[in-house]
Design goal:
Shape: elongated
Number of domains: 2
Helix content: under 10%
Structural class: mainly beta
Order of helices and strands: EEEEEE
Strand content: 15-25%
Strand order of the largest sheet: 1-2-3-4
Number of helices: 0
Largest sheet: 4 strands, antiparallel
């Protein structure tokens, strides 16, 4: 670990048991997670001191070159325009780009001719 300028470098853990033969390392919830080419495994350990080492997926992966963590806490907090009152749509609220939405009607329904395209 280091500061943003690369200074104040600290070694969290080292040694034969922790040297990953890997192209993929990621961090989440205080853990470092890596793929190990030698054992074909996914492994995690405490990011600060290397304790609590645990094999998450033993002998099941080959040649992992990218590891991406998908976790609710890592997702951007973007308002959902359909989340309140179904976006004002009577039936279907379909998310679109740029935090917008479009109302839609179920099969065999159509919009009422009131000009707002929200009520089926």
């Amino acid at each position: 670990f280091s500061n943003y300028n690369g200074g104040e470098r600290k070694i969290a853990f080292s040694g034969h048991d922790y040297v990953p033969y890997s192209l993929s390392v990621s961090f989440i919830d205080g853990y470092v997670i890596w793929s190990d080419f030698t054992n074909h495994s996914l492994i995690r350990a405490d990011a600060l001191n290397g304790s609590n080492k645990r094999v998450l997926l033993p002998n099941t992966i080959n040649e992992v070159v990218a590891l991406t963590i998908v976790h609710p806490s890592l997702q951007p907090q973007i308002p959902n325009p359909c989340g309140i009152n179904n976006g004002g749509c009577s039936h279907l609220c379909l998310l679109s780009v740029n935090q917008s939405y479009t109302c839609a009607c179920p099969e065999h329904f159509s919009f009422i001719n009131n000009g707002n395209n929200r009520t089926c």
